[in-house]
Amino acid sequence: MIRLSKYGVGLMLAGFLLNPSIDVSAQSNPLTEQALHTQAIVDLQLQAYNNQDIAAFAATYHDDVEIHRFPGGLQYQGKDELIKRYGKKFAELKCLHASSLVRMIEGRFLVDHELAQSCSKTAGEVDRSIKVIAAYEVEDGLIKRVTFMR
Q1: 17: closest CA among 80, 119, 100, 141?
Q2: What does the DSSP 8-state code read for residue 21?
Q3: In this predicted structure, what is the pLDDT of residue 4?
Q4: Residue 30 confidence (pLDDT)
Q5: Secondary structure of 29-67 in the HEC alphabet?
Q6: CB 145 within 8 A of CB 65
Q7: Alpha carbon distances (Å) from 108 to 10, 54, 111
Q8: Cβ contact 77:64 at 8 Å
Q9: How many whole angstroms separate alpha carbon 112 and alpha carbon 17?
Q10: Is residue 68 exposed (0-12), middle (13-18) or buried (19+ Cβ within 10 Å)?
């Protein structure tokens, strides 16, 4: 039996997502009802992020949401802290836009390779652009846990 540490699993996942020869966009099986719900809440979250709407953004998260960074572990927990951090970001930046480049969904789990862009000085003039892997876990119809890998 092969055993992977949490770092091995993350590296394997990152390698899979970054390998352009693997086509994950063509799914051979239709999404389950659970996967469709997972996709819907993450899409709502992404739309609220792009609209810089902190109320709609926070509404997609569990009260006891956990935000992790890989490696590094838990960064913060709770919707109040999420609102504090993202509310400041939404207020300070002139524009935000994130989009999914590649997406995988399995039940309550969704992994996106995302492109996030922002404007710090002038709306419409992107001055920061990053790619990040975001792994979402949905419970009870809300985002319970997110792990960012970069």
Answers
A1: 100
A2: T
A3: 41
A4: 83
A5: CCCCHHHHHHHHHHHHHHHHHHCCCHHHHHCCEEEEEEE
A6: yes
A7: 18, 23, 10
A8: yes
A9: 9
A10: middle
Tokens for 67, please give them.
């935000």
Alpha-carbon distance of 3 to 16, in angstroms, equals 18
The residue whose two tokens read 């809440």 is: 41
Residue numbers of the chain with a pLDDT score lower than 70:
1-29
1: helix, strand or coil: coil
Q: What is the pLDDT of residues 99-114, one digit of tens each?
A: 999 999 999 999 999 9
Q: Which long-range contacts (CB under 8 A, 24 or more apart) does 135-141 make?
A: 135/13, 135/109, 135/110, 135/111, 136/38, 136/42, 136/109, 136/110, 136/111, 136/112, 137/108, 137/109, 138/37, 138/38, 138/41, 138/42, 138/108, 138/109, 138/110, 139/62, 139/108, 140/62, 141/37, 141/41
Half-sphere exposure of 55 (CA within 13 A, CB side): 0
- What pLDDT is recorded for position 135? 98
Starting at the edge strand found earlier in the chain, the sheet holding 73-77 runs 73-77, 61-70, 142-149, 128-139, 109-119, 95-106
Here the tokens at position 90 are: 């939404």
Cis peptide upstream of residue 30 (ω within 30 degrees of 0):
no
